[in-house]
Amino acid sequence: MVRFIAVLILFIPGVIGAFGIKLMRDALFVEVYPILVHEGLQFIIGLIMFIGGLAFIGGFIYHRDKQRKIVKKRPKK
Questions:
Q1: What does the alpha-carbon distance between residue 49 and residue 13 come to, in Å, rounded to a whole number?
Q2: What does DSSP assign to residue 76?
Q3: Domain extents for the chain?
Q4: Residue 59: closest CA among 22, 17, 25, 20
Q5: What is the spatial distance between Cα 5 and Cα 31, in angstroms, rounded to a whole number?
Q6: How confident is the model over 50-73, as pLDDT tens digits?
Q7: Is the confidence at residue 77, as pLDDT, over 80?
Q8: What is the DSSP string of 22-67?
Q9: CA distances from 37 to 7, 27, 30, 43, 52 (A)
Q10: How far apart are the first and last CA of the chain?
Q11: How far apart are alpha carbons 9 and 72 in whole angstroms?
């Protein structure tokens, strides 16, 4: 059950990131959604969605690896 919840936690931001990529691609080919008025606005919203989804997945993986002590510590200067 815990693994299923973890997969759902990773699936939802992944879908949001993929939709962000689709919005950016559609903005480049000037296919504007009716809700979004301008293709520049559509591209910015898609970029925010993509970066947000990618950051969430990356942070989730980093947190999990940090708990399992896989992440190496930085060398001190």
A1: 9
A2: P
A3: 2-67
A4: 17
A5: 35
A6: 999 999 999 988 988 888 888 878
A7: no
A8: HHHHHHHTT---SSS-SHHHHHHHHHHHHHHHHHHHHHHHHHHHHH
A9: 34, 11, 11, 11, 22
A10: 44
A11: 25
